[in-house]
Design goal:
Length: about 90
């Protein structure tokens, strides 16, 4: 008889980058109704610089397409997140 002593095999919270990006995109889209316009112009919604010049990785370009933020602004938001209280 198998003895199942696993404490909890239920749902694990999604630590999925795409989920984070979606959330950020929602936030950025909410704060910046011009996001689609920025995407059309291929600029960043935050700094208004050409995204291509400020996205230095493929991931950065994807982030920009989702959130409208260039990679530098995107990273700045993450760095800004909680400077005094780094995640455990
Ligand atoms: Zn930017």
């Amino acid at each position: 008889m198998p003895d199942n002593d696993e404490p909890y095999m239920g749902e694990t919270p999604p630590t999925n980058v795409n989920e984070l990006l979606k959330e950020l995109g929602t936030i950025a889209g909410f704060k910046n109704p011009d996001k689609q316009d920025a995407l059309n112009k291929r600029i960043c919604v935050k700094c208004a610089h050409p995204a291509a010049q400020r996205c230095y990785t493929d991931a950065g370009r994807k982030e920009w397409a989702i959130s409208g933020l260039c990679e530098l602004c995107f990273d700045a938001i993450f760095a800004d997140d909680d400077p005094e209280h780094p995640h455990p």
